[in-house]
């Protein structure tokens, strides 16, 4: 790594870190204020609201990382431009593309750090937040922390209406089908409790068995059932797809496809994660016209920062809209997730080249 890479990268990284911490703290504060409305339900207290806001903060950091990179680039490079340091680098023959390339190199360790947070920090923090909230609220707001899911293997379909990572699953239904597609049995249970030996202890059971076109119903007090889900898979299914570990999400999508199951929502979440690194690079490139446009030294740096924030928020909104539209129209998730950041990278590269040609003409004239 050259002196230029270290110098520009460190200037942008400091600004990125400050912006990322500030935005994460701001949105966590807003979430904390929202959580205050739950105080009084069940055993939910002030410390529960604070704990929920803190535990979900890492996920917010991942969401605001592209905006933080754009603002960090504007602030870091803008500070250098105001003191003519970028002009000095140009006088030594360093092009704008070379300077922005130094900042793009910064994205690599940032991407690695964000991946580690997404893989090892966000999932357990999200699970802990859901467990604590569900334990404090109890049944006061049963629809608030609904961790319901469907799962299927070898003709057995499992539906859980509520599971938030605790020791009890509620609203459990199990459908077993014959190879010809006819229903073999249907079990409904009010609760299911995983046992140390891997079985589930079902209580409040109603069981329907289909034989020769006849349905026989019984109501055993309890029933032992061997699930096809491991404890780790069960924990992962209890959290939203967008907060699952990237590697586990990729493996789960592959497994769903192998079993010819619908995986569109999980695919969209996975490709949204893949789009983050591309978005970071695009945000760096889109900052170039502002930095080298000559207005940093004319006292308009504040307006450039505001404009950058608007661009960043607008980009995230477009990405959200594209993702939802892709789900509605069943578009390939890779296309709907990667199209906005790739367009952003292309636009940033074009603006950088256009600005370079304009400056070349200005200096040659």
Rg result? 26 Å
Number of strands: 7
The coarse overall form would be elongated
Bin the strand percentage: 5-15%
Fraction of residues in helices?
Answer: 55-70%
H-E order = HHHHHEEEEEEEHHHHHH
How many distinct helices? Answer: 11
Distance between the termini: 34 Å
Low-confidence stretches: none
Descriptive overview:
The protein is an alpha+beta fold. The protein has helices at 3-35, 46-55, 57-82, 85-91, 96-137, 231-237, 246-258, 264-286, 288-291, 301-328, 333-364; strands at residues 149-153, 156-162, 169-177, 183-194, 200-211, 214-218, 222-225. It folds into 2 domains: 3-138 and 263-364, no CATH class; 149-238. Strands 1, 2, 3, 4, 5, 6 and 7 form a 7-stranded antiparallel sheet that branches. The two termini are 34 Å apart. The model has no long low-confidence stretch (mean pLDDT 87).
What can be said about this structure in brief?
It is built from 11 helices and 7 strands. By secondary structure, the chain is an alpha+beta fold.
Distinctive features:
alpha+beta; 7-stranded antiparallel sheet
Any chance you could write out the topology, listing elements then pairs?
Elements: H1 3-35, H2 46-55, H3 57-82, H4 85-91, H5 96-137, E1 149-153, E2 156-162, E3 169-177, E4 183-194, E5 200-211, E6 214-218, E7 222-225, H6 231-237, H7 246-258, H8 264-286, H9 288-291, H10 301-328, H11 333-364
Antiparallel strand pairs: 1-2, 2-3, 3-4, 4-5, 5-6, 5-7
Helix pairs in contact: 1-2, 1-3, 1-5, 2-5, 3-5, 3-8, 3-10, 5-8, 7-8, 8-11, 10-11
């Amino acid at each position: 790594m050259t002196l230029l890479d270290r110098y520009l990268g460190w200037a942008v990284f400091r600004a990125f870190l400050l912006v990322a911490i500030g935005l994460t703290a701001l949105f966590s504060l807003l979430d904390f204020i929202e959580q205050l409305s739950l105080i009084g339900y069940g055993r939910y207290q002030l410390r529960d609201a604070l704990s929920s806001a803190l535990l979900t903060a890492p996920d917010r950091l991942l969401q605001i990382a592209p905006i933080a990179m754009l603002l960090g680039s504007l602030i870091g490079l803008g500070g250098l431009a105001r003191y003519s340091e970028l002009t000095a680098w140009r006088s030594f023959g360093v092009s704008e593309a070379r300077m922005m390339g130094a900042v793009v190199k910064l994205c690599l360790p940032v991407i690695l750090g964000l991946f580690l947070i997404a893989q090892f920090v966000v999932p357990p923090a999200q699970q802990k937040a859901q467990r604590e909230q569900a334990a404090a609220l109890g049944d006061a707001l049963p629809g608030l922390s609904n961790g319901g899911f469907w799962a299927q293997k070898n003709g057995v379909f499992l539906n859980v209406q509520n599971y938030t990572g605790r020791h009890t699953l509620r609203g459990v239904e199990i459908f077993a089908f014959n190879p010809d597609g006819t229903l073999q049995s249907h079990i409904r249970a009010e609760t299911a409790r995983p046992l140390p030996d891997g079985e589930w202890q079902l209580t409040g059971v109603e069981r329907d068995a289909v034989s020769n076109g006849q349905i026989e119903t019984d109501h055993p007090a309890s029933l032992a059932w061997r699930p096809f889900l491991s404890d780790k898979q069960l924990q992962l299914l209890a959290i939203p797809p967008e907060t699952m570990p990237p590697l586990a999400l990729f493996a789960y999508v592959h497994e769903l496809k192998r079993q010819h199951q619908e995986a569109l929502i999980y695919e969209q979440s996975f490709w949204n994660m893949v789009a983050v690194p591309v978005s970071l690079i695009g945000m760096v490139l889109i900052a170039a016209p502002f930095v080298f446009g000559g207005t940093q030294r004319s006292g308009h740096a504040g307006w450039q920062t505001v404009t950058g924030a608007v661009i960043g928020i607008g980009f995230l909104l477009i990405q959200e809209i594209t993702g939802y539209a892709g789900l509605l129209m069943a578009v390939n998730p890779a296309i709907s997730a990667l199209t906005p950041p790739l367009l952003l990278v292309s636009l940033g590269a074009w603006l950088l080249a256009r600005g370079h040609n304009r400056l070349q003409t200005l200096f040659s004239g």
